[in-house]
Specification:
The complex is a heterodimer of chains A (305) and B (325).
Chain A lengths: L1 H28 L3 H5 L6 H11 L5 H13 L13 H36 L4 H15 L2 H15 L12 H30 L2 H9 L3 H19 L1 H18 L5 H10 L3 H29 L1 H4 L2
Chain B lengths: L6 E10 L6 E11 L4 E5 L6 H8 L8 E10 L2 E2 L5 H7 L4 E4 L13 H12 L7 H11 L5 H4 L9 H13 L5 E5 L7 H17 L3 E6 L2 H7 L2 E6 L2 E7 H6 L4 H8 L39 H5 L5 E4 L2 E3 L8
Parallel strand pairs in B: 3-8, 3-9, 6-7, 7-8
Antiparallel strand pairs in B: 1-2, 1-4, 4-5, 9-10, 10-12, 11-12
The chains are: A mainly alpha (305), B alpha/beta (325).
The complex binds adenosine-5'-triphosphate (ATP) and magnesium ion.
């Protein structure tokens, strides 16, 4: 188990270097970063001076090593717009996103588990087809559109819920639903298919032969097994949430890392974008590591080997 | 065996309805089972043995399969007339079953203890504080060493033989009157097979339960059963006391099965003595279903299914050769 974690950790580090390299060299391909940082009326001398101070006149591989060395010291450059270290900026916004992700995941699971389980149990019936339609609608509905629709109905028309920014618990309702819905369709289909597989297994037959009620068979014997693939893919789903947070946070003016990413893009704040992408990758890898440990907890076959 | 049978199956029909066609997996099966006796249900793969067994528990695969006709009498009550709720009280307590593949019969994410105690708790006879002690007792009854520790184990931590024993213990949890044991066809390892037979005998010796033993091996039947019912293409073609059937098989199919047993100690896998394959269950031939493979087939075998005719006391067979021409 410990070896397994160490192994995953090393894999993670390797991936991280890869991400950093891609981000770094892509950035160099799109032009000299110094041009983005200079005011429009800067003289060629100013430009040359900046390039020298930033080390941009050295060979790429040398620049990359410096970049990595700095990164290891927790320095990923400075945001052009905020004139603050990008890392500090990221971590000041991260808690706001983290406050959004668990309730969004909870919303997604609360909708996807019953939908997935019921459509598997009643496969081929009207209920199954109805759930399928909901899933397709969920997939086809753009996140920003749902967010705007919810704001229009519940904030503008009914005036029940706030439409933007952080605040009390009522501020969480619309962004959480918007972000959670992003995952429902995918989760539901996954749960449905793994549930179908589990329902077909021998141990389910044995559970019925024992005289267990169908309720016990489905929720006690099947659900945990059916959730194993969900957990294996939980990293993917959480990563999707981090991505989905960009749109949701933008629509709801939620000051998290999603909105920070959006700002970095529209303000062409390249150092910030670079830092945000790398730190997002760190976050996703960290999530995956935690998920692997949790996975081993749920599936005893992994825990003991 | 003059007393009333414990279980009586009459004219059972269980059909499967896949997207196209009808599979007549069980097509008019009748047999009886008495207290304490062991009945062997023997036949080639696909003849409908497992489907017959699942029908007794009313657990045929949903939604493809349906019991379309018949009666299943257990202690004076027709199980086919019972509600699903009533059936749940019969499963495990009156009729238990060990599935064909004990290796995958246990839930991988629940401990042995959880799965055993769950079966015990359903009986409702025991205070919940006594359940653990009862579970340990049960495991000891099927000769699982270090039973208390085993309760905390997960199925993948057990050996194949151990899993079989746990499944046996679960079957015994409700003190059933009938135990159906579907013999594994995949794990044809001789030691595993021997272990399995010994386990069943042990379980039966501890109670007076009746055993319905499903196998495709006549040799095993001769060793373990009191009576035998030979199944072919969804029907029982011959039945009677093992010794009588073995010494004087009346149906050509039974004769071929017995001829295929080289010596009673060696299991067989293929029936080399009969030409051809069993018919596809979605297209049974008219008349006797065995006639395309039968060396004695006469014109009437092609037209009408033979009636079940007496051979000797308690020994019957469905073959035209037993009728007057
Ligand atoms: N879920 C299913 N869907 C469709 N056909 C099925 C299904 N289960 C069984 N059958 C068919 O029903 C017939 C009877 O199957 P059954 O499992 O009762 O055979 P069996 O005698 O137990 O064979 P074996 O010795 O291989 O276990 C077979 O022809 C099989 O192909
Ligand atoms: Mg079978």
């Amino acid at each position: 188990m410990q070896r397994y974690i160490v192994q995953r950790f090393v894999q993670g580090l390797f991936l991280l270097v890869l991400v950093a390299a891609v981000v770094f060299f892509l950035g160099r391909l799109t032009g000299n970063p110094a041009d983005l940082m200079l005011p429009e009326d800067a003289t060629p001398e100013d430009r040359a001076a900046l390039i020298r101070t930033l080390g941009l006149d050295r060979p790429y591989h040398e620049q990359f090593l410096i970049f990595i060395a700095n990164a290891l010291r927790g320095d990923l450059g400075e945001s052009i717009r905020y004139r603050r270290p990008a890392v500090a900026l990221f971590f000041s916004r991260l808690p706001n996103t983290l406050k959004l992700v668990p309730p969004a995941m909870a919303v997604a699971l609360a909708m996807a588990i019953p939908l997935g389980v019921l459509s598997a149990v009643y496969r081929g019936t009207l209920l199954d087809r109805l759930a399928g339609v909901i899933a397709v609608l969920g997939l086809a509905t753009p996140n920003f559109w749902l967010g705007i629709l919810l704001i229009y109905i519940f904030s503008v028309q009914l005036g029940w819920l706030p439409s933007a920014r952080m605040g009390g618990i009522r501020h969480y309702i619309l962004p959480t639903i918007t972000l959670g819905t992003f995952l429902v369709a995918g989760l539901m289909r996954l749960i449905r298919s793994s549930m179908l597989e589990v329902l077909d297994s021998e141990f389910v037959k044995l559970a019925r032969i024992k005289g267990l009620s169908e309720t016990a068979v489905i929720w006690r014997h099947c659900l945990r097994n059916a959730l194993i693939p969900v957990l294996t893919l939980a990293g993917v789903f959480l990563a999707a949430l981090v991505t989905g947070a960009i749109v949701t946070e933008t629509v709801f003016a939620w000051p998290g890392i999603g909105r920070l990413t959006f700002e970095a893009v529209i303000f062409r704040d390249y150092p910030l974008l670079q830092a945000v992408v790398i730190l997002d990758a760190v976050l996703v890898l960290f999530i995956n590591l935690v998920v692997d440990v949790l996975y081993a907890y749920i599936d005893p076959r992994i825990r003991y080997t | 065996m003059s007393q009333a049978p414990l279980l009586e199956v009459r004219d059972l029909h269980t059909y499967l309805f896949p997207r196209r066609g009808v599979i007549r997996a069980v097509d008019g099966v009748s047999f009886t089972l008495h207290r304490g006796e062991t009945l062997g249900l023997v036949g080639e793969s696909g003849c409908g043995k497992t489907m017959t067994a699942l029908s007794l528990l009313r657990l045929v695969p949903q939604p493809v399969a349906r019991i379309v006709k018949g009666e299943i009498w257990l202690e004076g009550e027709d199980l086919l007339q019972k509600s699903e709720r009533e059936m749940r009280r019969i499963r495990g307590r009156k009729i238990a079953m060990i599935l064909q593949d004990p290796q995958t019969s246990l839930n991988p994410v629940l401990t042995v203890g959880t799965q055993l105690i769950e079966a015990l708790a359903l009986q409702g006879r025991e205070a919940s504080s006594r359940l653990v002690a009862r579970a340990v007792e049960l495991l000891q009854r099927v000769r699982v060493a270090d039973a208390a520790r085993r309760l905390r184990h997960y199925p993948h931590q057990l050996s194949g033989g151990m899993k079989q024993r746990v499944v046996g213990a679960i079957a015994m949890a409700g003190n059933p009157q009938v135990l159906i044991a579907d013999e594994p066809t995949t794990a044809l390892d001789v030691t595993i097979q021997l272990q399995y037979l010994n386990l069943l005998k042990e379980l039966q010796a501890q109670t007076a339960m009746a055993l319905l033993f499903i196998t495709h091996d006549f040799g095993v039947v001769a060793h373990t059963c009191d009576r035998v019912a030979v199944m072919y293409a969804g029907r029982i073609v011959e039945s009677g006391p093992v010794r009588a059937v073995f010494n004087r098989p009346a149906h050509p199919y039974t004769q071929a099965l017995i001829a295929a047993v080289p010596s009673l100690d060696e299991p067989v896998e293929r029936l080399d003595t009969i030409e051809g394959q069993p018919p596809a269950p979605e297209a049974f031939p008219a008349g006797c279903r065995f006639h395309p493979r039968c060396p004695y087939a006469e014109p009437r075998c092609h037209q009408d299914y033979p009636p079940t005719l007496p051979v000797a006391d308690g020994h019957t067979a469905a073959c035209w050769r037993l009728a007057a021409p």
